[in-house]
Amino acid sequence: DPLPELPSPDPLPELPSPDPLPELPSSDPLPELPSPDPLPELPSPDPLPEPSVPELPEQDNNGQPEEEYDNPFKRGYIVKFGRCPQNLDASIMPIEWIVIHSENNRALLFSRYGLFDSLFDSSENCWKTSDIYRFLNVNFYGAFFTDEERAFIDNDENAGGRVFLLSEDEVYDLLDDDLKTCPPTEFLNLKRTDCNSATCKWWLRETDRNNPGKSAMIVDEYGALSSADASKMDVAVRPAVWIKF
Asked: What are phi and psi of 149, to 5 degrees?
């Protein structure tokens, strides 16, 4: 049998249109923040200095291992101590000394150069009453060292002064052959008359035994012991000092 015809459904009711959404108030604009101050420009750091090792002269540790030898004034070292005229315009410069011996916290310094020329004495040749003794221990000592430096200078019992000349024995015992010849400073060279040599004669503190009344001992231009009239002016002075450390 054919299926019965169903009735048409009722139409759906029309829904009311929704209320429009309320309009939200416009928000205040955000305040404009000030631009930050620029960062200060930092200075570029100074480059680190390259480490340098001072060049030291050859040293003689007297046969002791290096780790057992703590003497700050080793034999052969160059020490700058005091100041005096040395170059062509007679300007004051540090005096260079060579350490030739040390003992009991003292070091014996010997001038590397002939600093000036001088007579030994105008009338005699006795070291402790001589003109050169007085000059070294009054004028030289007083003018060419500071108060602080003078505090380090020790008296030499054998020479009987604080600034002195070497003896024959000290030349033989303490100086190598290259130290027996004496190079002059530029200041001394201006005054020399024996300019045929790059080295000069220099005074010792002892009397010439063969001519005890007039002559004093010297080391000649070639490093050999000799003597000269005590009143001669063309002999250089190479002082020595003991300093305490």
From this structure: -70, -40
Distance in angstroms (rounded) separating the CA atoms of residues 240 and 245: 16
DSSP per-residue letters across 163-216: SBPPPHHHHHHH--HHHHSBPBPHHHHHH-S-TT-SSB-EEEEEE-TTSTTTEE
Amino acid of residue 22:
P
Residue 98's identity, in one-letter code, is I
Reference 98, options 170, 42, 9; nearest CA is 170
- Residue 104 CA, chain-centre distance (Å), reads 24
pLDDT tens digits for range 180-212: 999 999 888 887 655 556 899 999 999 988 877
| Residues paired with 110 in a beta bridge | 98, 240
Whole-model pTM: value is 0.70
CA–CA separation, 222 and 181 (whole Å): 6
Residue 135: CB atoms within 10 A of its CB come to: 17
